[in-house]
Amino acid sequence: MATLSRTELAELNVFSIICRKKSFRLAAVELGVSTSALSHAMRSLEERLGVKLLNRTNRSVVPTPAGVALVTELDRGFDYIKSALSTLEPYRDEPIGHLRLNIPHDALDLLIAPVMESYAQTHPKIALEVAVNNHQVDIIKEGFDAGIRYGEIIPKDMIAVPLTGSLKWVVVAAPAYLAKYGAPGSPSELKDHSCINMRLGDGAVYQWELGNDEAFCRLPVNGQYIFSETSMIIKAALAGLGLAYCLEMQIDEHLRTGELQCVMPHWSHLSAPFMMYYPSRRQLQPGLRPLIELIKARHRSPG
After folding, report:
1. What is the pTM for the complete model shown?
2. What are phi and psi of 69, to 5 degrees?
3. What's the rounded Cα separation, in Å, for the pair 284 and 18?
């Protein structure tokens, strides 16, 4: 079996990252080096292998057919290396490494932010990177170790771990709005109200899901306002601009103070929990299991 030098392994890793990022600039940022250093490494690799691996233009970087074949096998190999290294975790006093997550904004506010201080104190050797995207992301292709999404949209080839119980969705409004327009009593009456809509990450406008089991219905609603962030929907509702459809856990405080009131409570909807998911072919990345347990413990406890 041929022995690879440290330089050769480094160049192969650089090549894999460039293919994943489709950009010398973004790969350079991830590696913390200059683009010229990456260009030099790729020239050296191609000259040594005697094969052109990348087609590079001013706008993009695309692997050649030979490059595609090589990076496919390399990525499998690097996954095996990561898996092998993860077997050392039980022998360490505490987890150490780099953990990269991709999550939606709601999960940042509800799941990650509340446990950050505790996680940092108990796992000081884990470098945690969190990217926030409301649209669905291929975590393997983008180089993330795990992601958080609502349970219904987790890819089927992933391992998924529930972080919360079932999520309760409710329709709410400010007292000022209800005093002026009244409260709807059923989904059919929503057409007579101003509803604050949500623009999803894929560009679609979210259809409200109401009721459960035989009484379940999904319907588009009318309204003057559309936001892509839940925080803006809540602020609009607090300002009396219309009815809002929210996770109950996001507005607990506003419900307690009476700033928002639940309408059509018998039409609240239960959905799948937030899930942490990761590739099934990998062992857990260092620090991921403790983070999962920390989030789950918080949502098992009152408040």
Report:
1. 0.71
2. -60, -40
3. 25
Reading the block at residue 178, the tokens are 């209800």
Query: Which stretches within the chain are classed as H helix?
Result: 6-21, 24-31, 35-49, 65-86, 105-107, 116-122, 175-181, 230-238, 252-257, 288-300
What tens digit of pLDDT does each residue of 128-184 get?
A: 999 998 888 888 888 889 999 988 788 888 889 999 999 999 999 999 999 999 999
Of 178, 169, 170, 103, which is closest to residue 133 (Cα–Cα)? 103
Nearest-angstrom CA–CA distance, 16 and 202: 28
Model confidence pLDDT, tens digit, residues 8-50:
888 898 999 898 888 888 888 888 889 899 999 999 999 989 9
- Classify residue 3 by its DSSP letter: P
DSSP bridge partners of 150: 274
| Angle between helical axes of 6-21 and 35-49 (0-180°, round to 10) | 110
Question: For every residue of 161-203, which 3-state class applies, written as one string?
Answer: EECCCCEEEEEEECHHHHHHHCCCCCHHHHHHCCECEEECCCC
Q: 3-class DSSP state for residue 159?
A: strand
Residue type, 237: A
Query: Using CA atoms, how far apart are residues 178 and 231, in angstroms rounded to an integer?
Result: 21
Q: Report d(CA 41, CA 13) in Å as an integer.
A: 10
Instruction: Specify whether the CB–CB gap between 124 and 148 falls below 8 A.
Output: no
Residue 22 carries which side chain, given as an amino acid letter?
K
